[in-house]
Amino acid sequence: MDIILVPGFWLDASSWEKVTPALVAAGHTTHPLTLPGLESADAARAGISLQDHIAAVVNFVDGLDGKVVLVGHSGGGAIIHGVADARPDRVARNIYVDSGPLGEGGAINDELPAEGDDVPLPPWEGFEDADLVDLTDELRVSFRARAIPQPKGVAYGRQHLHDVRRYEVPATVIACEFPSSLLTEWIDAGHPFTAELARIRDVEYVDLPTGHWPQFTKPEELSQAILAAVKRAG
């Protein structure tokens, strides 16, 4: 299976480097992506939108044969949902890593502090304690050293969806910061945060307790969770 891995904010393809070996060893072909504006700290980010990131992944899907599995971490969840909307017949399963689908008109996070066209990685005190579970001092130093400013247009831009067949794409949610039972409680309560997730017909939940960056804090466990989900994708 072709597995396309979409990073969350401030990260490029290399952020998946401890996750992909187990996927390759299991016989899959992995495609960790670096999205527009994330090529380097010096890359131009002006005018890059959420739609541009979705289009970049759609174009990659179009260059492959057969169905693919999409993995989206954090803000990457909004992107893979947009790809499922654009190519619902090409996606065998969407795997949301501590993330979920973003509905029509939603923004990934328009409250992050921006500097011009850039959204730099905030100081650690800008995150919730739950985000930082298992992120040791060593991992924090490594993360900050690799962090690339996120294009403001991706963080602040609005999601635009067109094809209800996106709800037919099976999904796996790998819950890290808080248990999946909380997500299902929100769905049952009709919470706006989970409204789009509630519309997907086939969703499974996997708990992987750690902070917001399991590709750094628990890469082996994340690999196995992804492998299990891919197996269910056929």
Automatic annotation (TrEMBL):
SUPFAM superfamilies, per database record: alpha/beta-Hydrolases
Sections of the chain in a coiled coil: none
Molecular function terms from GO: hydrolase activity
InterPro entries, alphabetized: AB_hydrolase_1, AB_hydrolase_fold, Sec-Metab_Biosynth_Hydrolase
Domain AB hydrolase-1 intervals: 3-224
Pfam families assigned to the protein according to its UniProt record, in alphabetical order: Abhydrolase_6
Keywords tagged on the record: Hydrolase
Iron in keyword set: no
Listed name of the protein: Alpha/beta fold hydrolase
Organism: Pseudarthrobacter psychrotolerans
